[in-house]
Design goal:
Length: 75
Amino acid sequence: MQIQGEITKFRDDIGFGVIVADNGRKYRFTKSDVVNSDLELVGSTVDFVVEASRPTKIILLQGSPWTVFGPAGRA
């Protein structure tokens, strides 16, 4: 199931944060779950997939598409 929400908390020292989904549900995540984690996490609107009650494939909906997918021609 694909959901949108906002990252409301993130502790870089332990690598965990909280997403509040548009439906009000809260999900804990790790930084490794974020596809494009080079941007500021707290306050970011995100799109993510829920698998086994956990958010995965978290994409920050900021910047350009290159922020998410990187420059063409790179593997």
